[in-house]
């Protein structure tokens, strides 16, 4: 029998606290794009910015409030009239809204930052909540640095704001200091010991300085919190905030045990993560849980063997349900014969035992010389083992030239061999940058329409002989194809990745009729 689960409201502050990360500043139009995606993903509340901080932030909050009528919009500010006025005005057209104000409560903040007494802080909190209550019913109050504030004064501040009409108490771990047991118990003490504490809602806001933001947020949920404040990819001040994707998937994966759920559309998690990463210019760590490149990829032979037999042997989540293209097997020096045979079979290539033995030997030599073996490199090895070409197109030459001066331009020439006809042709194009020139020339070589969707560049080593890796995503026939290329020349790696993705599309097209026949 299905037990009713408690709903956890996801409060996204990527556009406010997340943007405070050094180098993460966003233009108003970028904030609006991200806000639309957050709404599509199903967050409950968006904190789009700090309206008093700049005209751009005010405009972004105002525009998002007007456009996203189905989402609660939170206006943020200090416990100061001018901040509250700006937050109220920026969110006045929202379909649903709350005002969120903060005021320091720990002695270290009072002594060295605010330079105010405890009594002054209580009066400020009381008067500013009362002031905001004239305009908005839903008032969230945050005693900043609450986890380093003693219970006695924390309770005094919270009781004061409840008396003046605060409806949501956010008790933040501002500097990421708390341990999960401490943080959860703090909420239990507040709920039991603060007068009026049973009449308000509770929110958790955790920073990740000790790597405990998600753990602390889960502890708060266990203590009865119903709102959790998060950022996409965990961006934010210093080491960042509680990661939206990690918290949501922890709840989704263990919801039967926890007895809670969220309203997040998990299939949009990956797209949202990539969007924020691109717009902010913040790369995602390879080992980042949920959305990192390695989160659902496996190189070890034992793991690959288990996955090929049953995915659940080494994966507790299905990446495809997160919108992540499945590519669980990475071929490297730790990979076994079973994984190699499986990958070759995916390409529709049938090999004899002798050919597979030859391929495996050459594959191991290649894998020892570099970190991973890309699909295009594997297909070259397969072609050598079966004494023929198995890919539709081969890049045989690339030339790129740049001109200086005010009107800088770049030109590229590529030579492509069509392995089905044996013909080789040269194609040329120009572009504002070398990548654009290469892409335009390669498009001419392909017999299908190709849309260049995405490019990621990575360095795989250091020093003068460093190898660069390009990961290219193309849209062909309405489907996305992603592949990689590696070379000491980073532009060559882009061209290799482009051709590899086109070959992947051709393989899928050739495979479809045979699959339909066998079905």
Automatic annotation (TrEMBL):
Its EC number is 2.3.3.13. Residues 8-270 form the Pyruvate carboxyltransferase domain. CDD domains: DRE_TIM_IPMS (cd07940). Pathway: Amino-acid biosynthesis; L-leucine biosynthesis; L-leucine from 3-methyl-2-oxobutanoate: step 1/4. Keywords: Acyltransferase, Amino-acid biosynthesis, Branched-chain amino acid biosynthesis, Leucine biosynthesis, Manganese, Metal-binding, Transferase. InterPro entries: 2-IPM_HCS-like, 2-isopropylmalate_synth_dimer, AIPM/Hcit_synth_CS, Aldolase_TIM, LeuA/HCS_post-cat, LeuA_allosteric_dom_sf, LeuA_bact_synth, PYR_CT. The keyword Repeat does not apply. Pfam families: HCS_D2, HMGL-like, LeuA_dimer. The keyword Cell wall biogenesis/degradation does not apply. It is an enzyme of class 2 (transferase). SMART domains: LeuA_dimer. PROSITE patterns: AIPM_HOMOCIT_SYNTH_1 (PS00815), PYR_CT (PS50991). PANTHER family: 2-ISOPROPYLMALATE SYNTHASE 1, CHLOROPLASTIC-RELATED, HOMOCITRATE SYNTHASE-RELATED. Belongs to the alpha-IPM synthase/homocitrate synthase family. LeuA type 1 subfamily. This is 2-isopropylmalate synthase. It comes from Paenibacillus hexagrammi.
């Amino acid at each position: 029998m299905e037990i009713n689960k408690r709903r956890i409201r996801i409060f996204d502050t990527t556009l406010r606290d997340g943007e405070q990360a050094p180098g993460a500043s966003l233009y108003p139009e970028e904030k609006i794009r991200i806000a639309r995606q957050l709404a599509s993903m199903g967050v409950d509340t968006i904190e789009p910015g700090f309206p008093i901080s700049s005209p751009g932030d005010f405009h972004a909050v105002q525009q998002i409030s007007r456009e996203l009528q189905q989402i609660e919009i939170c206006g943020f500010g200090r416990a100061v009239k001018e901040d509250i006025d700006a937050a109220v005005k920026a969110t006045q057209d929202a379909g649903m809204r709350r005002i969120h104000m903060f005021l320091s409560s720990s002695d270290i903040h009072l002594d060295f930052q605010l330079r105010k007494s405890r009594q002054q802080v209580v009066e400020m909190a009381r008067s500013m909540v009362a002031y905001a209550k004239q305009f908005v019913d839903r008032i969230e109050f945050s005693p900043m640095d609450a986890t380093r504030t003693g219970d006695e004064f924390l309770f005094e501040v919270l009781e004061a704001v409840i008396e003046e009409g605060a409806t949501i108490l956010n008790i933040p771990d501002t500097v990421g200091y708390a341990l999960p047991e401490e943080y959860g118990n703090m909420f239990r003490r507040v709920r039991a010991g603060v007068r009026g504490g049973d009449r308000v809602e509770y929110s958790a806001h955790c920073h990740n300085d000790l790597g405990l933001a998600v753990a602390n947020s889960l502890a708060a949920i266990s203590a009865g919190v119903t709102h959790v404040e998060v950022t996409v990819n965990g961006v934010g001040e210093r080491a960042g905030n509680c990661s939206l994707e990690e918290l949501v998937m922890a709840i989704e994966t263990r919801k039967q045990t926890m007895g809670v759920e969220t309203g997040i559309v998990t299939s949009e998690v990956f797209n949202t993560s990539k969007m924020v990463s691109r717009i902010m210019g913040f790369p995602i760590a390879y080992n980042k849980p949920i959305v990192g490149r390695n989160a659902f990829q496996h190189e070890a032979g034992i793991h690959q063997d288990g996955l090929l037999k049953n995915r659940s042997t080494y994966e507790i989540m299905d990446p495809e349900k997160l919108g992540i293209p499945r590519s669980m097997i990475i071929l490297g020096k730790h990979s076994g014969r079973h994984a190699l045979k499986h990958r070759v079979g995916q390409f529709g290539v049938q090999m004899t035992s002798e050919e597979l033995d030859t391929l495996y030997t050459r594959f191991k030599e290649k894998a020892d010389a570099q970190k991973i073996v890309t699909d295009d490199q594997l297909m070259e090895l397969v072609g050598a083992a079966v004494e023929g070409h198995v890919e539709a197109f081969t890049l045989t030459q690339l030339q790129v030239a740049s001109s200086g001066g005010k009107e800088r331009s770049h030109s590229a020439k590529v030579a492509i061999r069509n392995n089905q006809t044996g013909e080789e042709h040269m194609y040329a194009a120009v572009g504002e940058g070398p990548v654009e020139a290469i892409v335009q020339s390669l498009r001419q070589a392909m017999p299908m329409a190709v849309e260049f969707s995405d490019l990621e560049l990575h360095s795989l080593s250091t020093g003068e002989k460093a190898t660069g890796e390009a990961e290219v995503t193309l849209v062909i026939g309405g489907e996305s194809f992603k592949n990689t290329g590696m070379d000491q020349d980073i532009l060559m790696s882009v061209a290799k990745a482009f051709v590899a993705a086109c070959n992947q599309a051709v393989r899928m097209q050739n495979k479809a009729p045979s699959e339909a026949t066998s079905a």
